[in-house]
Amino acid sequence: MTEAALKRKRGRPRKQEACQVVPMEALRGEVTAHGGRADPFSLPQKNSGNIAETVIAFLETLRVPEGPKAGEPLVLAEYQRRFVRGAMVPGVMVGCLSIGRGNAKTALSAGIGLGSLMGVWDNQPKREIILAARNRDQARTAFQFVIGFIEGLSEAEQELFIIRRGAKLEVEYPANGGGLLRVIPADGKSILGGAPTLAILDERAAWEQAKGDTLENAILSGLGKRDGRALIISTSAPDDANTFSRWLDEPPPGTYVQEHRPPFGLPADDLESLLIANPGAAEGIGASAEWLVAQARRAIARGGSALSSFRNLNRNERVSTEDRSVVVTVDEWMSGEVDPEDLPERAGPCILGIDLGGSRSMSAAAYYWPETGRLEAVGSFPARPGLADRGASDGVGNRYVEMNERGELSTLGENTVPTGPWLAEVVRRLEGITPACICGDRFRHAEFTEAMAKAGLGRVPFIWRGFGWKDGAEDIERFRRALFDGEVKTVPSLLLRSAFADAITLVDPAGNHKLAKARSLGRIDAAAASILAIAEGVRRTARPVSKARQPVWA
């Protein structure tokens, strides 16, 4: 078959079967070009849709390489077409796809890599395609998809490829100007000097932070040499500080973002949100909806790491999968969240937990009413730098600004939070209620004494607690028991969710726990204040009530 005939064959789109399409209104799919956001189809570039439609037409000439439908013609789902049309238009250098596990994102990018290798839409000579992953074994998955697609071509076309499976995983295509596809693990080795025409960064959220960023920067710096393009694909990262999360939240100009992530806080087995994270389930790709619901219920029953992993991998949520030393998991904490109308009243004595921040960190306060289980929390930062700049430096994006809009976070002071006025403001929020006691860190004794005197709280009892192994282990255990027994009720709080997402415990050989940060830029002050207040509230309710002796008449 001649080369012209092959091109005509690839250019004929295959008829797609009718299928149910997941509602796309709930998904994010946008492109930033030259600093502004716009729909990819409205970009002003000339012939903007030609490359994307050529890619789609080529992909549908391939055959499914593995699975129950192996050997059948490849039919793209609607969400896959949407990604191709957004990421492959002129003016877009980076296309980001975040979707649940098993939705053929690696297979899709491998098919695009094969088309680029063959020069279907880019006929510049000596094309270079990079398949990058955390390690060689992980990259082998994408490499095997490329090989599987090649094996589905005609024998004449297969003979044009040179496949190397030794120390290097490579595919060479000498025809049509020549091209080389090679696997690159993110092991810290530099690839400076390369000039890729297409780079596929597979499961970017799983890369090691330092080595992954080094490889990514090396790849992206070489794309400009030959008008190259990168496809960054992955399930969701466990936190906002991950580099892949920042690609999605703060896309630079020339970036297309398509993120299939359901709203936070829904039950793990909620079908509608499962289909948002797994649109392939409605189109016969990957796991079925019934399987996803069954796995969700199994994860709910097991709890712990099983539930956290299911949320992160299958629901594509930004949930930490660290389970060995977290204070509480996301679902355990959410068990204490209630609607505002169901929040218990402020009744009985109020325990005030305080965590004073340093010169630049957050100060937080937690109010706990042990009789009703009501919990409230507030935090404060100094005014400089602003909340938006502080969020960017802490790797949490716009989260601090959202907390401020929700009334959970405020600013006080210029460069530091003044302890006296801040503590007075914390007590003012009680609207006339005098706290039964205040709990705080004994190592900040002098600061607390001065702050309480300035706030007019000199007569309020102060309970000194340490954050080490002795006091910390007791407080954390009492906090967990109260939460698990349903004795903690609070409205959904972004401040508390964020704090407990970053809160872990260090465990000594005797099994004692003390509070620590999961990452250096994490802010766990609200979690620390809540643990102090709830633990003291539990201690008070556990004490036996002394009864006055009845008088005995002689």
TrEMBL record:
Domain Terminase large subunit-like ATPase: 97-237
Matching InterPro entries: P-loop_NTPase, TerL_ATPase, Terminase_largesu-like
PANTHER family: PROTEIN YMFN, PTHR41287
Protein name: Terminase
Organism of provenance: Altericroceibacterium spongiae
Upper classification of the organism: Bacteria, Pseudomonadati, Pseudomonadota, Alphaproteobacteria, Sphingomonadales
